[in-house]
Please model this.
Amino acid sequence: MMGSRQTEFSSGPLKCCVCRSVRTFMRGTGLPICSNGACLSEYYRLKQMGTPVCLECGVYLNSPRERCERFCSVQCRSQYTTTQLIRDSQSYAAKIQEQIDVKLEQLDCRNDDAAPVIPAIIPHNDYLLSQVSDERLETFRTATFATIQDAFRQHPDVPTELPEEDHGERMHPETVRLVAEACSTCRGWCCRYGADRHAFIDVSTIQRYRVNHPTASAEEILAVFMMYAAGESFQGSCIYQGANGCRLPQPLRSAVCNRFLCDGVRTLIQLGVRSDVPVMCIAAVSGTVVHDVRVLDRVS
Model:
């Protein structure tokens, strides 16, 4: 037991399980003890007493603190934790992949080539869908109109240039498509952050609208944003987040909404440009459950 533990897991030099010294092991015993004869006697005594050993390196634990923590050192505890995390991660990935494979078979979309299907893992919104209440609409209306008024007060003249947040490179149309597919499959997990922040609509969002609609009044701008607020929305999420994704057209969304990409979406975009990935798919995962798998067509 002691020897197998050290041989399998220890990344550093093997230690005598009794005196913890790194030295030549006693030949012919198959035991993790050094050539000191006293350690052999002590080894059998400790074993007979059922003395606990370090979970990582297998040496006998001497002090009450070591026996309580089950490790002989901070280094061993750290190494053991890392090993367990790797094992748990591998086990988790295997469970998720197994569910994805089953759903791909149901969709008749398994890849016949040797290359495996590499999914983009995205979160899954478990919130309930319900009709937006009048109270929630009124709260949103009040907050949005206050932001619009701030924009007119801070910038009395009609702007002619887009706000700084809108400068820079635009997304490629194919990237926009992939993002939309991913977010609708996810059902807006990230969008829940927009609930209390009123869809992240800020002065810059209003200024962008004013550039494109220079004659619009504050009331007319409010009417446009409220037009998309009514309907069904996920409880606890952004008011615009409906069953099929965001109801607010992209030109009206805040810079935060237009630019934020979760890790799963970034993976999907990377897969989209790889020629060695014949099948692109999105898997919406919550905990250890794969709720939805969507296979995407490639656009050449």
About this structure: Strands lie at 118-123, 129-131, 232-234, 241-242, 245-246, 280-286, 289-296. Residues 2-77 form one domain. The chain is about 45% helix and 10% strand. The two ends are 58 Å apart (CA to CA).
